[in-house]
Design brief:
isomerase, L-fucose Isomerase, Chain A, domain 3, alpha/beta, single chain, arabinose isomerase activity
Amino acid sequence: MQTKRFIGENPKVGIRPVIDGRQGGVRESLEEQTMNMAGRVAELITSTLKYTDGTPVQCVIADSTIGRVPEAAACAEKFRKEGVGLTISVTPCWCYGSETIDYDDRMPKAIWGFNGTERPGAVYLAAALAGHNQKGMPAFGIYGHDVQDADTQTIPDDVKEKLLRFTRAGIAVAQMRGKSYLSIGSVTMGIAGSIVDTDFFQTYLGMRNESVDEVEIIRRIEEGIYDKEEFKKAMAWTEKYCKTNEGHDFNPADKQKSRAQKDADWEYIVKMMIIMRDLMCGNPKLRELGFKEEALGHNAIAAGFQGQRQWTDHLPNGDFAEAMLNSSFDWNGIREAFVMATENDSLNGVAMLFSKLLTGSAQVFADVRTYWSPEAVERVTGKRPTGAAANGFIHLINSGAASLDGSGEQTKDGKPAMKPFWEITEAEAEKCLKATTWYPANRDYFRGGGFSSHFVSKEGMPVTMVRLNLVKGLGPVLQIAEGYTVELDADVHKALDERTDRCWPTTWFAPRLTGKGAFKDVYSVMNNWGANHGAFSYGHIGADLITLASMLRIPVCMHNVEDDKIFRPSAWAAFGMDPEGSDYRACKNYGGLYK
């Protein structure tokens, strides 16, 4: 089930076929070749990429080739009417540089200059990029490694990779623009990430900030401002898939709730989930019930729930609502995951949002809890870790917003995976639910009760852990760590897991090491991580995140991505020969995309 969540349509990719403007033989000889290049790029994108709602990414091609300013202006007007959010210019030849480039300084832009000997596409590419850089409008340059013949009908693999990387990141930028981050509550126990920085959201992401007090959930529950029919359906589903997996109550006898109280908590947390979703994206059903204002929602592409402590000291916790919103399925079937940050950690919510927009898959929110060295594991358990865990690993665990997709019960090529919702089967969704135990909440932490999910991620998933941090005087910085989920021997897992909380979801994470810097060893990864939280996504998507960050002018302070995969605007090369330093200097020079 997939319903429209946001105001407006999905952003489209604008393709600009740029041509030598000289009539009388030159331009005419290039019309077909240039338009064919545009058509091949459009076909590549629409057949390969999808929006997060599962529909194919749409492309718009200019009505004519662009050789002079009036044609560039006509193209820009068409793109404005069509809702274009990023542009790709293509050409096989020399063109008039500053007359033909895209002048929208907030629109991500790339130029593919054909590598051929018949016409100087590379010369235009260099001239146009120089124009962009001189005018302060960074653009991505795409130039194939090998010379092609003029009549070729194929796009080289290296060009495809850059076209798709640019488009994935550009679509993510355009999808955030104009949307909201919704805070349900405020600051959680002094966590800096939940001190929402509205200037960051506006200046770097082009997003609004919305906020409601947590009392709004109470009001809607007490006044019946939710879809009663959906609630009945949701409770029947929850009885079948979640209550049947209710775990042992490990609380002391004097703190355990009665069966009747636990049943009431189940009803309460299901209502919480429905209401938190309605707060994010609205619900037309509420209008039918007479609640016109509540039906609107907040046009929120991401949200966070404060929870601790004022809420959880008194009422059932938000773990069920957060975990299920972040999953790719619920009582309405398989659907696009939401982004709901536990403890209203808006910066981790942004990290989740970046990765979700790039992959279309659910994200896992976690504490970056403990580094386990091989020596410490052996001391505690008598066994030394082997295989992918041999160099040590990091324990990712948090009571709240871990998507059930993170269990690894979905499969891709026969291996554990977290897939976009349109690839998930009903059987895979049920496996994720069966792999999850719902334990009565630890009432030392959560005095109001509720339930916390528990699963253990399967081994072998390639994942990327991400975190956005704000540093005074510097601004936002992004951290990226690619690696793999690992499994431990059952007795080793039990010994380590129960030192923390056996009732919470666990992922054992082994980052890929490079032997230098923050990735010299696993300890260094943990020691350099910038906050108490991180979010991980399926797949090694660090290169896409680096491209996205450069579009937003956010420097990357830590990553283990191979150098040859890093793709940033051409202007970055003018800021020095060391890639990390040039990234910082370029981002400082240009400032946030919406400054």
